[in-house]
Hints:
Elements: H1 10-15, H2 24-27, H3 47-56, H4 63-74, H5 78-92, H6 97-109, H7 113-126, H8 132-142, H9 149-161, H10 166-178, H11 182-194, H12 201-208, H13 217-233, H14 239-250, E1 257-262, H15 284-299, H16 304-307, H17 310-321, E2 328-331, H18 332-336, H19 344-356, E3 362-367, H20 379-388, E4 390-394, H21 401-411, E5 416-418, H22 424-429, H23 433-446, E6 447-454, E7 457-461, E8 471-473, E9 476-481, E10 496-502
Parallel strand pairs: 2-3, 2-5, 3-4, 5-6
Antiparallel strand pairs: 1-10, 6-7, 8-9, 9-10
Helix pairs in contact: 3-5, 4-6, 5-6, 6-7, 6-8, 8-9, 9-10, 10-11, 10-12, 12-14, 15-21, 15-23, 19-20
Amino acid sequence: MGTSVFAAGSAKRRSLGIKDEEPRSTKQGFTPLNTMPLTLPTEPLGSDGWSQLKEKSNCQTRYEDRVLEGMLKMNTDLEIAKSFLSFVAEKDGDISYRFLVKYLVLCVQQNQGAEVCDVYDIMRMKFQSFDTGASSLFIRGLGKTDRWRESIAILETMRKGGSVSARNYADCVKAAIGHQERALAFTLYDEMVQNKMLLPEDALQSLFDASQDLQDDDYRRRLISILSYFRENQIYPGEVLMKSIKSWFESIPNEFWRGKLTKVTNGGHCQACNEQIESIHLTPEEYSILKKAVIDGIIKGEDTFRKTTPQELQAFLQFVNSRPPYDIVVDGLNVAYNSKKGIFSQTLLDVVSCLKAGRKRILVLGRKHMLVHSKKWVKQDIQRLQEYADCFFLDNISLDDPFLLYASINSGNHCCFLTQDLLRDHKACLPDAEIQRLFFKWQRGHQLVMPFYSPGNVRLQPVLSYDTIVQSTDTSYHIPYDRTDVVRTSFEVPKTWLCLKKEQ
């Protein structure tokens, strides 16, 4: 069986066959900007040495900026950078804000806490306030020193100004837990959750990697609540964080957890412990909520009549509602175009014939131009198609996705739909994150995809039978995680899992 269209990395694999567009610089006759080589010393220089180096340079314009940018790129030794700032101060009579910030970047980049503290003191004396960039650098740099509480104070100032970021919170969480202040660390974490900010993984990792001296029963409950948050929000830890979670479970005193890296079978069983993973199918209550949201938001939404006309929509609703529920709804054009060199109508007929062999009730959504006989759309094929399935032909300018969704979800939880379209725009139209989560779950459990087609050889990818979320029992945890070497887009789910079992 081919890899699921929703599996992590599928989008990248599909894109490999697409040739990258030629760079604008060559395609439109432009040549890349000629960047002059910049010579940096290998040891600190005095003012005369820097003056001579500047005179020999071919880049007199913005020379000082270019030198500092080069130092950042080369991660130059701080003593060399300080000698350059001394040269600038002697030449200009002072050091500008932007030069101090660039030097600060270098200090933070090299984890030079003492230098960060010195720059902080200098800049507090010289300037009344800092911009967001400098404040963020000070939070990160001071957080690794004995003056870490000053990073918390800077965070508070930024929070009042409304410019605080998840990265700022993360650095403060790491500072707090690194200095044994677990209550403060979780207070900051709670603020992020309340503000619907996702804490960067390195901060979460610091909580799981914290000293065992901090980890009483309450601390462990807080860490378990992070896993619950992952489940509720369909968040997947990366591979590095996953390893910290695994180590944390295995280090819990007197509980004897053991973790294994694994995958899940097509039938929904963990390959490591054979435990059944939760079903992908929605509960009746979830399905009812999603059905109402899809019909209200996508079919009856404000943009509906840009895709169709009121008359066409009414005709379609009457057509669907006057017939028994369907088992499969087919995006006719999408399926037909799988055979780019063949006859479109034959491809569509071939696929529907295969589906009909399973005694399924089928609806095919098409366009009116398919009814006009041509080399690609043979009249006899369309006539046979109408013998196998109900067919509704939309105006050529109408978008068929809303009709596909309505017919599928209105037919009931058993109905699947066949299209290569991943419907990302429609998910984005739904009113909130919970409804979007239900839509994506329903889609993965109901969308048929045809990864391969040749005449007489129709292969459909089975739908997923299990849900890809964190789940647990009294003696197990199953945590889907992102591999470091696999790029996953937002509509995909990981294929790799951490299986944690508590030995009896």
